[in-house]
């Protein structure tokens, strides 16, 4: 057990690479045209689909690294339209293609960790996404974790991305808790740990590096460590 969980009334999680894995399959080796056909596309060639997806991803990565855009981040549909010139219908199809490649899987072990923690703590998720968040709901429901995530805050539902404090403040407001009663758990020092710490939350960095950065209060190789020992009930 890496942290005294009884100190906290709620646990906020990042999602991708924290309890959902295998997403962001957006590299050049992916068969985007097969996905395009699977969602009903017929008009665009494989080259056109690859260009549309690749240009949108490159644009997102550039904007993601721009600190001036953390509270004015474009939507996926805006990004596709900015970097390619398909019709409105084709933009919608390319959005579906990217969404299908961005969504990952919640493995059974990770789902069980969240279900176990929900017996003693209020749970929530605060995560950066590119595609609209409704694309993640089937996987969250399939894995049964949707039912225990009392608070769900996703960047693609608005124009802010972590490390902006707006998403974290929204989650605190939904929980109606002060930051001192919340532990934030995530895999990114820049986008999870630092902004949560700045607001006064305790933080737990999920990292395989084996060392704990000065900014994080706790660290662990996997969220499985949260249930490695019996979790005390909230006080």
From TrEMBL:
Keywords: Hydrolase, Magnesium, Metal-binding
Cofactor needs: Mg(2+)
Matching Pfam families: Hydrolase_like
GO biological process: small molecule metabolic process
Gene3D superfamilies: HAD superfamily/HAD-like
Protein name as catalogued: HAD superfamily hydrolase (TIGR01509 family)
Recorded GO MF terms: metal ion binding; phosphatase activity
UniProt keyword Magnesium, yes or no: yes
InterPro entries: HAD-like_hydrolase, HAD-like_sf, HAD-SF_hydro_IA, HAD_sf
């Amino acid at each position: 057990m890496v942290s005294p969980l009884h100190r906290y009334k709620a646990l906020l999680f990042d999602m991708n690479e924290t309890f959902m894995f295998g997403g962001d399959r957006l590299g050049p080796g992916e068969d985007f045209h097969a996905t395009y056909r699977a969602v009903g596309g017929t008009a665009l060639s494989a080259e056109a689909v690859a260009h549309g997806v690749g240009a949108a991803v490159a644009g997102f990565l550039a904007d993601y690294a721009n600190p001036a855009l953390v509270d004015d981040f474009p939507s996926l549909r805006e990004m596709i339209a900015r970097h390619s010139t398909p019709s409105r219908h084709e933009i919608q199809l390319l959005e579906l293609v990217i969404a299908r490649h961005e969504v990952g899987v919640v493995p059974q072990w990770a789902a069980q960790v969240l279900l176990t923690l929900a017996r003693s703590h209020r749970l929530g998720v605060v995560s950066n996404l590119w595609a609209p968040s409704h694309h993640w709901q089937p996987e969250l429901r399939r894995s049964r974790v949707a039912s225990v995530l009392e608070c769900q805050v996703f960047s693609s539902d608005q124009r802010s991305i972590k490390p902006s404090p707006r998403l974290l403040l929204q989650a605190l407001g939904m929980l109606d808790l002060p930051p001192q009663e919340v532990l934030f758990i995530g895999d990114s020092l820049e986008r999870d740990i630092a902004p949560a710490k700045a607001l006064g939350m305790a933080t737990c960095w999920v990292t395989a590096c084996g060392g704990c950065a000065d900014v994080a209060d706790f660290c662990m190789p996997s969220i499985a460590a949260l249930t490695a020992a019996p979790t005390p009930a909230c006080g």
